[in-house]
Write a structure and sequence with these properties.
Radius of gyration: 20 Å
Shape: globular
Distance between the termini: 48 Å
Oligomer: single chain
Largest sheet: 7 strands, parallel
Strand content: 15-25%
Order of helices and strands: EHEHEHEHHEHEHEHHEEHEHHHEEHEHE
Number of helices: 15
Number of strands: 14
Strand order of the largest sheet: 3-2-1-4-5-6-13
């Protein structure tokens, strides 16, 4: 990549999550320091207001600002040409994300986002994979709670399995333990938009239902089936499980990671994610509520009501609530030949998953893309496939995440 004016530009910096990313970079990397970064958005006054807010803790007077709008492709291309990485929080990405990807691909600029919209990512892969390879742009989706903890947790456990036993796990089960945090308004908006798109678009419906919809073109699908939709007993964890809303994204991202890395875990590698529960009754209740909720959102009048009642993009929890949040995920890796050699890992985050931890993960992903030597060339990547151990180190050292191998019997029950 040729010399650029900036290492990172946060596009959408005046939105709720964008502000958190800017605050994180200001607090941890400073202004006009080794990391040369800027903020961007469509409203000059809001950008000025953000600089004033940041100046309460650091001198942000010299922080550069850039005007760019998703409705103005030229402005996005000019932005992309000035920086090594565009870090965007402007969603729903299916509505506003494509022009930014297109600009980065054209400029050979790296890109990271918080997208959890499988149908949009599938379209981006189909339309821009070859162009990104040619330009050298590394496009990395899902750099927040969906899907960094799951993707990197799986990668971490496989590295541990390979180091200890010399083989990869043929199957990994991701199980979500204790969590505390509010639902993200941006995630809800993306989900509602996805339901709207699915009404009249067979491609979208297939992307949502196909467990391998994010697989590289030409790769033969593995053995995994549809995402869990009911209550199931997991004998490895000796607990009941229920559907986890993020599994529809995380499952497909992890499968794509294995494929992008050249199938080091095997072409028949299996992965699934679910929510741990304390009882069969709780698991069945959550499964029922989840299925009713998703079914309701597929009905246009009920979806319109939900839009008015649920949290909206730009809204989010207070600082105290973000700092009081947390999450934990467990990963059980099955040895291909000897169950006694199964391994388990635990991943934790020190803030609420949807905002506090997500903003830190996205920021560190952007810095990693800008500062750390890339593991591969251009293309549409996943976090683990794109950044691997370099991102793991940043998450551990800076973003409040822990990754550890634990006993296969160790588990903090909900």
């Amino acid at each position: 990549m040729d010399k650029r004016e900036f290492d990172v530009v946060i596009w959408g910096a005046t939105g709720f999550t964008g502000k958190l990313v800017a605050e994180y970079l200001a607090a941890n990397y400073g202004i006009n320091s080794d990391l040369n970064w800027a903020i961007a958005g469509r409203d000059a006054q809001k950008l000025a207001d953000l600089k004033e807010t940041l100046s309460r803790t650091v001198d942000a007077s010299e922080l550069p600002t850039i005007l760019a709008n998703s409705n103005d492709p030229d402005s996005l291309l000019k932005l992309a040409k000035r920086t090594r990485v565009v870090c965007t929080t402007v969603g729903p990405y299916a509505l506003y994300g494509t022009p930014a990807v297109e600009a980065c691909v054209a400029a050979g600029t790296h890109y990271c986002d918080l997208a959890g919209e499988v149908q949009w990512m599938a379209k981006i892969i189909a339309n821009y994979q070859k162009k990104a390879e040619d330009s050298g742009a590394r496009i990395v989706h899902t750099c927040g709670f969906d899907s960094i903890p799951t993707d990197m947790g799986t990668w971490f456990l496989q590295q541990a399995m390979l180091k200890k036993h010399g083989v990869a796990a043929t199957q990994i089960k991701s199980r979500v333990g204790r969590t505390r945090g509010a639902a993200s308004g941006g995630t809800i908006a993306s989900m509602l938009n996805m339901m709207e798109e699915a009404k009249g678009d067979a491609f979208v419906r297939d992307a949502i239902s196909n467990p391998y919809s994010l697989y590289p073109a030409g790769a033969a699908p593995g053995q995994d089936e549809a995402d869990q939709s009911n209550a199931r007993y997991d004998p490895d964890f000796q607990q009941w499980t229920a559907p986890f809303v993020m599994a529809a994204i995380n499952n497909r991202v992890v499968r794509r990671t294995n494929a992008l890395l050249g199938f080091p875990w095997g072409e028949d590698f299996r992965f699934d994610e679910a929510l741990l529960n304390s009882s069969r009754f709780q698991a069945r209740s959550i499964a029922t509520i989840s299925n009713i909720g998703m079914g309701s959102l597929s009905v246009t009048p009920l979806r319109n009501i939900a839009k008015k009642m649920l949290p909206k993009p730009g809204e989010g929890p207070s600082k105290a609530d973000r700092e009081a949040g947390y999450y934990e995920l467990y990963f059980h890796g099955k040895h291909p030949h000897d169950p006694d050699k199964d391994m388990r890992a635990k991943v934790t985050g020190d803030m609420d998953p949807g905002y506090g931890s997500t903003s830190k993960m996205l920021a560190e992903a952007a810095v990693c893309l800008a500062k750390d030597k890339p593991a591969g060339g251009g293309g549409i990547w996943t976090p683990a496939a794109a950044m691997g151990g370099k991102l793991l180190s940043r998450l551990r050292e800076n973003a409040g995440l822990t990754f550890e191998v634990i006993s296969v019997t160790a588990l903090s029950k909900k």
